[in-house]
Write a structure and sequence with these properties.
The complex is a heterodimer of chains A (260) and B (192). Helices cover 5% and strands 28% of the residues of chain A. With 260 residues, chain A is mainly beta. Chain A has one domain. Chain B has a single domain, classed as Jelly Rolls (Sandwich), CATH 2.60.120. The chains are: A mainly beta (260), B mainly beta (192). The interface between A and B is large, with 57 and 46 residues.
Chain lengths: 260, 192
């Protein structure tokens, strides 16, 4: 199953029901800001289970797991003071990517993976672009660091227009859940998030990867610490009523919501 | 109050209302806790943590433990993993919901997601109790996870990276009776 937009015959023509469906469509839940934690401490990265990404290192972390179908509509990120992906070198050599990984998936070489977190369950393949066939994961976002705000700002990844060409050069994301240590894979164009949201199927996870000037010539960013907060629609499907309810409402009042 | 399953007379017989009720019943909220704790043995202290504290009645549908890289297996007869409600802020106490004890088959803790169902499958049924989610948590109660490890357990030193809790943000489950059965026409559905 996936999240749907359903159009229903408005068989009742009720203003109350129209309002109820509107509220369901607009329901929003947000996860609290959590520190990005580096889960695998292999090649090219710092210590496992650390929230710091030192210069010239790369890292990855699962930032959201959807146990049931939902629509992710915002990904708020914040690099803490003095540590940001748009580094003093301009950020062109830093990268950020976001993968959507199903609970049962195959890597780009067609190898079935049994656990989402296994260190061998990488999203890359030799000479295959990141996210290329036959991988079952989806590359949702990939950009260099030039388009990110400076330090201290909370920003929405959906507002970031990805930049850069021929990204994911050899070595970027190496040793993380995105790419096997020492793997080489083809360059990939920048990818921006779909502004309509990310449709998550039950069991899907969002995997965020960051490369802190691993292979570039620019000066690396300082040690990065990142926090993330995910906004999503807790109500699975969007409901549209057709025809729209048009009866003029009377005795309808609206005041600021408050506890009784 | 407690979460309830309510059966209502379907006095409108509306497909729109039936769909709205269905969506309400299936709404899901998530709490992802970044624990990032290195597990210690029970001589040093319990590995207890409050995962969330609910201020209103909710129905928890899933709890998943995410173990980090490189840990050993939970393998000792004194090892135990459990979920508790209503305990203090340090997570050590409360009413048990589900416990898995005496791991007759070692459970690996390196880069894996684990549910209580997974853990119960490899523990001693005689020493374990309760069942995995779903379960209700009353308003004001906390939900805690506790991992107790024997000093000889190979899981000592493993890392619990995160815990993901899924719950129903809508308090009650609604059922309309009679079920609306009129054949719908011109019903459209596309990926959201």
């Amino acid at each position: 199953m996936v999240c749907k937009t359903k159009t229903l015959i408005n068989d009742v023509g009720s203003a109350v029901l129209a309002e109820v469906t509107s509220q369901l469509n607009r329901a929003l839940s947000v996860t609290p800001f959590l520190h990005f934690v580096q889960s695998a401490g292999t090649a090219g990265s710092g210590a496992a289970n650390s929230s710091s990404v030192p210069p010239s290192n790369n890292t990855s972390d699962v930032i959201f797991v959807a146990s049931e179908d939902c629509l992710v509509t915002s990904i708020r990120l914040c690099q803490t003071l003095g540590s940001f992906i748009n580094s003093v070198a301009g950020g062109a050599e830093n990268y950020m990517c976001l993968l959507k990984v199903p609970s049962l998936w195959t890597d780009a070489q067609g190898n079935p993976q049994t656990t989402q977190c296994a260190p061998s369950a990488h999203g890359d393949a030799v000479a295959v672009p990141l996210g290329g066939d036959p991988a079952t994961y989806t590359l949702e976002f990939l950009s260099d660091g030039t388009v990110f705000p400076d330090t201290g700002f909370i920003y929405n990844l959906f507002d970031i227009a990805a930049a850069g060409t021929a990204l994911s050069a050899v070595g970027d994301f190496s040793g993380t859940w995105v790419a096997a240590a020492g793997a080489s894979y083809a360059n990939t164009p920048a990818v921006s998030l779909n502004p309509k949201g990310i449709s998550m199927v039950a069991g899907d996870a969002l995997l965020l990867g960051m490369a802190n000037d691993v292979v570039g010539a620019g000066a690396p960013a300082s040690t990065m610490r990142t926090q993330s907060s995910i906004g999503y629609r807790p109500v699975k499907d969007e409901i549209i009523l057709q025809p729209n309810f048009v009866q003029t409402m009377r005795g309808y009042s609206s005041v600021d919501r408050a506890e009784k | 109050m407690a979460v309830q399953s309510k059966t209502l007379i379907g006095d409108v017989g509306s497909a729109v209302l039936a769909e709205s009720v269905s969506q309400s019943n299936r709404a899901a909220g998530y709490v992802s806790s970044t624990v990032n704790a290195t597990l210690v043995n029970m001589l040093i202290g319990p590995n207890a943590m409050v995962l969330c504290k609910f201020t209103e009645d909710v129905y928890v549908t899933s709890v998943v433990f995410g173990f980090g890289h490189g840990g050993g297996a939970i393998n000792h007869l004194n090892d135990s993993v459990g979920l508790f409600t209503g305990g203090p802020p340090n997570g050590d106490g409360g009413t048990p919901v589900c416990t898995a004890t005496n791991f007759t088959v070692p459970f690996p803790t390196s880069d894996v997601w684990a549910t209580m169902t997974d853990l119960l499958a490899v523990s001693d049924p005689a020493a374990s109790g309760g069942s995995d989610a779903p379960f209700a948590v009353n308003a004001g109660d906390s939900l805690a996870g506790v991992i107790s490890l024997d000093p000889a357990s190979t899981a000592v030193g493993a890392v619990l990276s995160s815990v993901n809790v899924t719950y129903r943000p809508m308090k009650d489950y609604l059922v309309t009776s009679p079920t609306y059965t009129r054949t719908m026409q011109n019903f459209g559905s596309v990926d959201r």
